[in-house]
Amino acid sequence: MHGAPPGGGMVPSADVEKNKALAAVSYLWIVSLVLLLVKKDSPFVQFHAKQGFVLFIISIILGFIPFLGILNLVVIVLELIGLISALQGKWRKLPGVSVLAEKIHF
Fold it and tell me: What is the residue-wise DSSP string for 11-47?
């Protein structure tokens, strides 16, 4: 069982199985935006790409503030958790990130 998407609803498990790799690479910086625009037919990819996009934006902001650079380690850890979760077919909400990700609508 891969779990249900946040907010309930039914998503075919075929979507999860077919798109695990794409969902995982959506945590690699700008790739998240590309997948948000290209894979609109996959709720699983959209879920992970939105979280990846939020982390991408946060890392850009942190890059401009030198004394907050250590927080980039937190971003990297969250990206790894998201990537691994996607590869496992899980709909894991990342702390603090998922709240912002849910507000993204393309």
Answer: --HHHHHHHHHHHHHTTSTTHHHHHHHH-TT-HHHHH
